[in-house]
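Cont'd.
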Amino acid sequence: MSRRPGPRGFRASIAAALAVLAFYAGLIVSLAWFLDGEVLNRTLFSERSFFSVQLSLMAATVATGLAMTLAIPAAYALSRYDFIGKQAAETVLEFPIIVSPAALGAIILIFFNNPLGEWLQENTIYFVFTFSGIVLAQFVTILGLSVRMLKAAFDEVPVELETVARTLGAGSRHSFFTVTLPLAKNGLIAALILTWAKALGEFGATLMVAGSMAMRTETLPIAIFMRLSNADIEGTVALILILVVIGLSALYAARRLLGRSAHA
Amino acid sequence: MSIEVRHITKTFAGHAAVRDVSLSVPSGQLVALLGPSGSGKTTLLRIIAGLEQPDPGSGPVLFCGKDVAGQHARYRRVGFVFQHYALFKHMTVFQNVAFGLTVRPRRTRPAPEAIRAKVRDLLALIQLENMADRYPSQLSGGQRQRVALARALAVEPRVLLLDEPFGALDARVRQELRQWLRRLHNEIHVTSLLVTHDQEEALEVADRVVVMNEGQIEQVGSPEEVFHQPATEFVMNFLGNVNLFHGRVERGRVVFGTMVLPVSVDDKADGQPARMFVRPHDLEVRTADAGGTGLRATVVRVQSAGPGVRLELSGPDGQPIQVDVSHREFQKMSLEVGDEVFVLPHKPRVFLGGQSGE
C-alpha cells in the first residue's frame, strides 16, 4: 500500500518533521521576549479579555453547530448519491476554501446593503455589527471546509455495510445512525475540531461583517489585531497565549477522543 | 422457498450485464451461479435481493410464486453475504449477529433474552460460541465469513444469497469453509444461491449449477451433468481442463489429422470445420497405433508429482495436448520424454457450426 522509504529517506523525513516542530516552537517561544508578568496578569484578568474569550468560544461553537447540522446531510448526499448539479455543488462548496475570508466578509456585507439583504435584516435578524454577524461570518467561512472533510469521512465507510444493514431490515435512518455515523466517527470528530478551531481563529470575515467594537464584537483574533495596532505588544502576546492554549487544549482533547475509539 | 425470475434484463450505461435471463430455484436447494467475472451472475443476485432494479420490460422476480419486484430490499427477507464479509467493525460478534433483530420496530422486536438465546444458538451453529465479545478485527477471515453468515441467518431469511463468499480467503480455508457450508445447508435447508467463478467450488457444493456467460445462461444442471455433458463449447471450456482439436468433416466422418472419429455425420456437413473437446483424463495413450485411428504425438514433459500423472504431448502440428493417466498405467508404458505415442479420445464432444454431437 505505502512505499517504505529507504534509511536515508527515512532520516531525511524525520529531520523535516523536527524542523517543522522547531520552527513553530521557536515562534511561540520568541513571544517570551515581550512577555511581561504584570501586563500578562492584567490582560488575562481584564474584563475586556474575558469578554473576548467568552464571545469567541460562544460564536465559534454556535457557528460550528450550525455548519455541522447542514454539512452532515449535505456531505452524506455528496458521498453517496449521484444527482444533477453535483459537480457544481462541490465546486461552490470549495469556493469559501479558496477565497480570502476578507473577500467573503465583504460579500456578506455587500449583500446586506442590497434591498433583499436590507429587508432580511429589518424583518429577521440584524447581522451587521452584531453577535449574529460574527456567527454568520464564521459559518460562511467554515461551511465549505466542513462539508469537504465530512464527505471524506463518509467516503471511508463502505457502501456495502449500509447495503447489509438494509437487507437485515434496517431503514435508511437507522442504518445511518447505527452503522454509518459510528464508523465515520473519527473523521467526524476531526472535522468538528478543525472547523471549530478555524471558526475560533477567524478574523477577516468577522472584521468585515461585525467590525471591531470592544465589549461588543471583539473576538480574540480581533482583540489581538486591536492591541497590536495600538503598539501594545505585551498585551498582544498575552492574548496570543490564550488563543494558543485554547487551540492546543482542543486538539489534545480531540486526540484523546480519537485515541480511545481507535481499536473499534 | 422457491425463487423464480423471468426474462430479466439489466443494462448498465448501454452494456447489458444480464440479458433476458429466466431461472428457477426450487425450494431448499443450494444452487451455484457459475461464470467468469462480468458474466452477470452478481447482477442477477443483486436483482433477486432487490439491491438493483431490472430494466423496464423485464419479467417478474417471484418468491414462492409471489412477485416481489416492487418490494424494497429491506422487506424481502433475504440474507445477503458479501465477499469481503461486510461486518460492522465497531460492533462485537454478538452485536453483529443480533443486528437484524435489534433493528426491528419495537412491536416485532424479540425480547432481549430471546435475542440473546437466538444469537447464542447461531454462534453455536458457526462454532464461535466463545467469540461473542470479540471485534471483527480480532477474527480470522474464515471466522469473519461465518459471522457474516450467522448475521444473515439471524433474521430467518427466506432465501440466502452468497456473493463469492469464499473469494477473499486462502485456498485451504476456502476448502474447509465450503464443506462446512454444505453441511450447514444439509442442516437448515434454506434456499440458497451462491455466486462463484470457481468451478471446483460450484461442483463440490451445489445441488444444481447454473453456468453463465456474457449475461446469459449457458446451461443449468446437476454438477455431474454440466461436467460430463456440457451443453456448449463455453461450458466445456470453463469447467475443467480441456483439449481442443480442430478438424473437418470428410465424407460423413469427422477427421482430425490422422485421427478419424467413429461418428457419423450428415453428408451435407461435408467440408465443415469441426472442433473436438476432450478432457485430459478422457484421452487414452498407446505406445503402438492399433487401428490407425489414433493421433500421433510426442511426449514433451512428464509431471508425476501428484495423485495422477500429467503428460504434456506435442501433436502433429506442434499443438500441445494434455493427458492425465494413472501412475500404474504410466509405469506400464514406461514413457520418457521424446517418445512417440498415439492418442485416442474417449467421450469426445464435437461441435460443428454450433451443433453438438457425440
